[in-house]
């Protein structure tokens, strides 16, 4: 059975290449003027899941830039937690005294989105989005964290869905699967003293076995008739049109991790190759299983299969702008995939292990 195709979009690849430069944010005409103010608040020193708060904010903004979101939505991504929220106790701007300053810096429209995102109940928003509880006109009533109520207009609902997708893919790994089990449902029934092993950060850094399914459902919510034409549709899940079931998400992650941990026969590549092929069939929307599969194909002398797998892996990485497997950064996954793609096209692969250390991109990949 052939693997699900994932064609590489040249325009998306070009945008992704521009974001591989660490200085991309300083060149963004909309985001660069805001960066010094954000950095001055110490975001590069704050812990946040798989890195620092700066890494997180920049990673979310990168996906939104790749998805060609308008200025106010990209600014929301860069500033989405700066007033604090119910999930992150990182208040970088005091909403009671500093809103006017942020409005002067980014404009009333963008600041209004940031304020609403930080003060509306994120948990209720996710619960309602997953349950399809979006009004016929695209609006959504929500509780506020201060006890009040707010009704989000349709464009704000669409922006929150897209930013939530980028926010989740940037940060979620198995550690959060364990400590935030069943999110967005409350998880206040598991004391740490009993479940201490799950609390040890950063844990084994497995890809999440459940959150891609949730991101998929947020994307599918963008197909609501009152929402679908308000903002550019993220290019993931075939522009948010194809479902990914919870079972398929879990099975793919388990198969992939079994190979990565070498919990399979190691003499031949056949078993590992078969497991990864099945992982891709379960979940064709992430790049890492396809990338590892490309390397196994190269090791087995299957250059044509390796080229197809590497192209598909690169297409997936370019669609997300963040990695699913958080052990290394998105840029590193893209870089190694381009090495595999180049080697497959040339029909070459090192016969000696030490020569893997010498590989370099030569043809632009």
Automatic annotation (TrEMBL):
This is Tetratricopeptide repeat protein. It holds the Pfam family DUF6817. SUPFAM superfamilies: TPR-like. It comes from Ottowia testudinis. It comes from the Bacteria. Residues 39-122 form the DUF6817 domain. PANTHER family: E3 UBIQUITIN-PROTEIN LIGASE. InterPro entries: DUF6817, TPR-like_helical_dom_sf.
């Amino acid at each position: 059975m052939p693997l699900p195709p994932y064609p590489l979009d040249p325009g998306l690849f070009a945008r992704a290449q521009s974001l591989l430069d660490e200085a991309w944010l300083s060149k963004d005409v909309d985001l660069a003027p805001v960066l010094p103010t954000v950095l001055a608040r110490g975001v590069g020193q704050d812990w946040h899941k798989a890195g620092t708060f700066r890494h997180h904010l920049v990673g979310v903004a990168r996906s939104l830039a790749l998805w060609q979101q308008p200025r106010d939505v990209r600014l929301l991504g860069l500033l989405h937690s700066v007033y604090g929220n119910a999930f992150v106790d990182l208040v970088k701007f005091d909403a009671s005294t500093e809103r006017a300053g942020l409005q002067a810096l980014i404009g009333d429209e963008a600041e209004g989105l940031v304020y609403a995102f930080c003060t509306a109940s994120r948990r209720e928003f996710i619960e309602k989005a997953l349950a399809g509880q979006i009004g016929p006109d695209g609006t959504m009533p929500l509780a506020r964290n201060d006890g009040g109520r707010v009704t989000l207009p349709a464009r704000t609902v669409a922006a929150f869905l897209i930013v939530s997708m980028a926010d989740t893919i940037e940060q979620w790994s198995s550690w959060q699967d364990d400590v935030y089990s069943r999110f967005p449902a409350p998880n206040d029934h598991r004391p740490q003293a009993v479940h201490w092993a799950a609390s040890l950060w950063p844990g084994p850094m497995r890809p999440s076995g459940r959150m891609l399914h949730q991101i998929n459902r947020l994307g599918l919510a963008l197909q609501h008739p009152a929402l679908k034409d308000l903002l550019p549709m993220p290019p993931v899940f075939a522009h948010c049109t194809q479902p990914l079931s919870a079972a398929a998400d879990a099975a793919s992650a388990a198969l992939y991790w079994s190979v990565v941990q070498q919990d399979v026969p190691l003499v031949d590549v056949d078993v590992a190759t078969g497991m990864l092929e099945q992982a891709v069939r379960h979940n064709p929307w992430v790049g890492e299983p396809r990338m590892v599969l490309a390397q196994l194909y190269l090791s087995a002398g299957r250059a044509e299969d390796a080229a197809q797998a590497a192209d598909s892996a690169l297409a997936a990485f370019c669609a997300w702008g963040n990695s699913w497997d958080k052990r290394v950064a998105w840029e590193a996954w893209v870089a190694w995939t381009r090495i595999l793609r180049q080697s497959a096209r040339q029909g070459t692969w090192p016969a000696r292990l030490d020569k893997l250390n010498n590989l370099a991109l030569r043809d632009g990949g």
